[in-house]
Amino acid sequence: MSARPAQLLAGLLATAGVTHFAAPKPYDALIPEALPGRPRTWTQASGAVELALAATLLVPATRRTGALLTAGLFVAVFPANVKMAYDWRHRRPALRAIAYGRLPVQVPLVGWALKVAREAPGR
């Protein structure tokens, strides 16, 4: 029952969360237009959520809940990945491949978060 998978997942979330604030413009473009408010608000909110979830994964007492919420986040952001794939459908093949490649990546990310939840202390 190593903490390493949780730590690595926390690192991924923390890195993504920081980039939402350090370089928000690409994330703003992923926000579906159907959402109310400004895209930047959604970008910053999702970055803050990623940072908070990273913290929960590092604390054994909150790891299970944090991992389950992380799995939910990965499902919740899937529409943004679909939007990116659609928006990038006419870009260069390499960029299109990145956009399309993000779609199936959500599945192992959800699986990783659920594995961390299953292996969390106190189960």
Automatic annotation (TrEMBL):
Protein name, UniProt field: DoxX family membrane protein
Originating organism: Actinacidiphila epipremni
